[in-house]
Amino acid sequence: MMSQLLPGAQFTYFIRPAHVSPPRGCLILLHGVGGNERNFSEISKWVDPNILVVMPQGPIALSNNADQFAWFHVAFTKDGPQINEQEADESRLRLLVFIKEMQALYQVDSSNTIVAGFSQGGIMSASVALTFPNAVLGFANLSGRILPEIKPHINNLEGLKKLQGYLAHGQFDSTLPISFLFQADELLNDLNVPHATKIYPMDHEISENELKDFLQWVGEQFEVTASIT
User: Fold this and answer.
1) Of the candidates 165, 99, 174, which has an alpha carbon nearest to the alpha carbon of residue 143?
2) Which of 2, 49, 142, 228 is most open to solvent, judged by the fewest CB atoms within 10 Å of its CB?
3) Residue 119 gets which letter from DSSP?
4) What 3-state DSSP class applies to 164?
5) Tens digit of pLDDT for each residue in 90-121?
6) How far apart are CA 207 and CA 140, in angstroms?
7) What global pTM score does this model have?
8) Domains defined for the chain, CATH in brackets
C-alpha cells in the first residue's frame, strides 16, 4: 500500500496495487465526510488481487484535524442536508479528471473502471457516473444519496443505459434517512440505469453483510473473484 501525489494529479491517493500489469480493472473508492484516503485500506485487501484499488483523499480539510477531509461542505438542517454546490461541482469535475489520470497511468479504460464510495463518497460516485457515464463501467453508492443539483448535468441518456449502478443503505440510517435510497432508486429507474438496490438492518455504516454483497457485485462486474470468504 502506498500514498502518492503525482505532478499534476488531482488528489493525493492511496493504492492497493494489482498483481498483474495492466490490471484486470480499477476500483476507485471514495471516503465520506471526515474520512481520508486510508479509510478503505482494510476493505481493499478483500478485492481480487488482479484489480487495482485507488483511494483518493477529498480536497477539503476539515477543522484542525489533519486526517479529516471532505469532497464538499454540508450542513444538516431541519429541511435536510444543505450542500456547498460549488464545491460539490468542483469535486465532481476534478474526479472525472482524476479517473482519466488513473486510467492512463495504470493502462485501464472506462469499460473496466468502477467508482464507489460511502456516504459523501457514494454521493460523489453517483455524481460523476451519472453525468459522465462513458467514463466508467459502473458506480456504487453506499449509504449516500443522489444530489438533485446534478440533474441539469445528466444528459447522456444513451450512455446511462450501459452504466451499472449499485445502491445500498441502512434501514435505520440516522444521518441520511433511507428515504434518500428510495429517491435514488426511483431516479435510476426513470433514467433506465441498470442497478441493484440493497437494504440492511443498520445505521449509517458498512456492515459485514453489506460489504460481502458489494464485493460480490464488484467481482461480477469485473468477472473476477472479489468477495470475503
Assistant:
1) 174
2) 2
3) T
4) strand
5) 999 999 999 999 999 999 999 999 999 999 99
6) 15
7) 0.93
8) 2-222 (3.40.50.1820)
